[in-house]
Amino acid sequence: MNVSSLKDSVSFTRFFNKKKALDESVPLDTVEPKEQVKEKDQGEKNTIYLDARNIWITNDGLLRDEGVLFGLTSATTMEKVSAIKNYFLERKAEIDAKKNGISGTVNELINERRKIEAELEQLAKAVVAENLETEKKNTYFFRNLLGLAFITGAAIGSFFLIHFFVTPDFGLAASIGVFLFGLFSLVAPLSTWLNPDDTNNKSFGSRSKVALLEIGSPLATTVFVSYIAYEHTQKIGLTIVIGIFLLFLFFFCGKLLLGVYHNLVEDFKQLLAVRKTAKLSRQKGISDNEAIEKKKKTLEEKITTINTLQSEILKLEAECLSLDQQSELKVNLFMSEYNLARNYSANPNI
How many CB atoms lie within 10 A of CB 284? Predict the structure, then answer.
């Protein structure tokens, strides 16, 4: 803009033709600071708020007038430039305060989200652990049941061998008694052969008594039945074979019979416990799954809220950037009018 065009500008026309300074805006003398001015038509919804103290900043026409006025008087512009910058800084401060408040809320929501995620992870681990606990363990119940049947059958069949030799001379009751006496060692609570560590700290005499208790009845029964078998068969080889067989039968069959029966009872208890645990786990799993779904829903709501607030923060940051740009533009506009008016005041005849 040159000096001749400056004379025809709106700002100079207002001053030199003595037009009203606010021919396109609200008169300053009719507006008090921070007064709310409403339009006359109450049917309209729009309400206009004017700040008379800073209207010269927000209104480009008034801002030009201020620049021209200060330029004609060659007054310092430091105060006006500071006022423009402070005005936008105040507006930025309000937005920054709002942004900080939202940021604090976002941080709280993020902490809550992390807490919920940690709880979900713990619930998931608990569900996996419960599923592992409810898995069927290798109890060998049916194998032990089959083993018990085999050992019982072997014991009954071996009884008939004793019955064949003993009953003709001594009767059935004697055969049963001899057979049970041979299995008497199965009730012994100690064993020098199966559990030698149980007697390490005992004296030699005590260990000898345990060994006699464990071996005595099978050995005595074997000798008795073998002698009767020799009298019936008069065959030394057959007698020796029968004796060895009966010795191992009484020595092992009793222990195996009692051990397998004990394992079978323990396996049955374990099966009942697993079944009960599985039932409780299913009930707890339902409640855990409901809790997981509820927490997932809450987590999704938190994430949605966080995303919304973060979008609002971005908008506020964009507003702050826009205010910085407006502040710079307003200062440049004021200084441009100021410099033009000052140059004209210094050279009015140009």
Answer: 13
The residue type found at 316 is L
Q: Which residue has the tokens 């927490």?
A: 295
| pTM, to two decimals | 0.44
Core vs surface per residue 165-174: b (16+ CB within 10 A) or e = bbbeeeeeee
DSSP letters for 229-277: HHHHH--HHHHHHHHHHHHHHHHHHHHHHHHHHHHHHHHHHHHHHHHHH
Using one digit for the tens of pLDDT, what is the confidence trace for 282-312? 666 677 777 778 888 888 888 888 899 889 9
CA-wise closest residue to 35 among 52, 57, 22, 59:
52
Q: How far apart are CA 129 and CA 288, in angstroms?
A: 12
Which tokens hold the place of 12? 């100079």
Q: Would you say 119 and 302 are in contact if contact means Cβ atoms under 8 Å apart?
A: no
CA distance 124 to 113: 16
Going from the C-alpha of 177 to that of each of 158, 191, 257, 301, the distances in angstroms are 14, 23, 18, 81
Beta-carbon contacts of residue 14 (< 8 Å; ≥ 6 apart):
20, 21, 23, 65
Give the DSSP letter of residue 48: E
Q: In what helix (H) or strand (E) does residue 37 lie, and over which residues does it extend?
A: strand 36-37
